[in-house]
Amino acid sequence: LLEGAAPGTHIKIDSNNNIIHTTPANRQAEIGGDKSENINGNKLVSVGGDVTDDVAGNWTIQAADMAIVEAPHIILEGDLMVKGPGIGGTSGITFIGDLNVEGNISATGTIIDTDGNTNHHSH
User: Fold this and answer.
1) How far apart are CA 15 and CA 47, in angstroms?
2) Range 71-98 average pLDDT
3) How far apart are CA 115 and CA 53, in angstroms?
4) φ, ψ for residue 89 (rounded to 5)?
5) Is 12 in contact with 28 (CB distance < 8 Å)?
6) By the 8 A CB rule, do 15 and 1 touch?
7) What is the C-alpha separation between 57 and 34, in angstroms, rounded?
8) How far is Cα 8 from Cα 25, in angstroms, rounded to an integer?
């Protein structure tokens, strides 16, 4: 038990050396310098509400293989740049499904559809 803590609040080390924090209230960490986590296994974060990361600088995600975002709807706000060799090491980007654009499309190269038409035609 923690001195002065409400019932149901504890920090426990179990027989497998797992550290378990339990509180019925909020938990806040204030760190004056950097924070680093080294996890040799998987990381799972389950949140019952929203998640907000408020970052003063850049936010970088690095993955050895793929980074996957799954949601019924994904909104990216701000300028968007996608760069890299493309999917599977090929050049470009592959969209699976329909692509709807509300606005103009500009290209520095040609636009080719599956029938081999160029950007110099209209349907």
Assistant:
1) 27
2) 78
3) 45
4) 80, 0
5) no
6) no
7) 14
8) 10
